[in-house]
Amino acid sequence: MQVQTQSFDVGTEFDRLRDENGSVGAVVFFTGLVRDLADDPLQEMVLEHYPGMTERCLADIVEQARQRWPLLHVSLIHRVGALKPNDLIVYVGVSSAHREAAFAACEFIMDYLKKDAPFWKKERSESREHWVEQKDSDLQAAKRWDKPD
Questions:
Q1: Residues whose CB is less than 8 angstroms from the CB of residue 25 and which lie 6 or more positions away in sequence, other chains included
Q2: For residue range 21-57, what is the model confidence (pLDDT) as tens digits?
Q3: CA distances (Å), 65 to each of 13, 49, 81, 82, 109, in order?
Q4: Strand pairing report for 88-96 and 119-125
Q5: pTM for this model (two decimals)
Q6: In angstroms, rounded to a whole number, what is the distance separating the alpha carbons of residues 102 and 94?
Q7: Which CATH superfamily, name and number, covers 2-142?
Q8: Domain spans of the chain, in order of start
């Protein structure tokens, strides 16, 4: 799990999810980009985090995924600092012997990242600057992973 200001190379990260002994049967990854605003061009998005707490939270999310699915490798990178539209912002990659586990774990990690990880986003556009509120749709997406009582 990495929290960093610098960008990353998706190809390099993909290669890290494979292994040499042939046990990986599936690699699934998600790469998020900073998107422009439809009604007011985005100049930059500034992401802040709480060092130490953020990394622990990311490690916990990955551990929860490892407890649910038989994963071989997991990579999670989230950028912080000032980002421009189309910059890479997040990478979640998982490998497993089977595709079902890899797909599910990647979605789970991304859903919980959006719900639980302590990142704060400020959007700066041509006309305004504001903090981005957590979306209800992100909270709802994570609920599908709740285990029944």
A1: 96, 97, 98, 99
A2: 788 999 999 999 998 877 888 999 999 999 999 999 9
A3: 19, 22, 27, 29, 7
A4: unpaired
A5: 0.92
A6: 6
A7: Molybdopterin biosynthesis MoaE subunit (3.90.1170.40)
A8: 2-142
